[in-house]
Design brief:
This protein has 69 residues and is of the alpha+beta class. The chain has two helices and four strands; from the N terminus they run βαββαβ. Strands 2-3-1-4 form a four-stranded antiparallel beta sheet. β2 and β3 form a beta hairpin.
């Protein structure tokens, strides 16, 4: 399942790279694309979407960004 995530706090290419790197370290998803203010990911286990999004939110928060829900 593909999801488009809205992310606050991204302003430059460094932000894009930081988000891409952080999300790429997660085993539960695949990063398809990252642009300013958004990321497209793919999740194989749809039964854990809320858990995965919570983990994404925590990881993004740790590096200074906010997942918009």
């Amino acid at each position: 399942m593909k999801l488009n995530l809205k992310i606050n706090g991204m302003a430059c290419s460094h932000c894009i790279n930081s988000v891409k790197e952080e999300l790429s370290e997660m085993d539960s998803l695949k990063v398809l694309d990252v642009k300013l203010g958004e990321a497209e990911i793919e999740i194989s286990d749809e039964s854990n979407i809320e858990d995965i999004l919570e983990k994404v939110n925590l990881r993004l928060d740790d590096i200074g960004y906010e997942l918009v829900r």
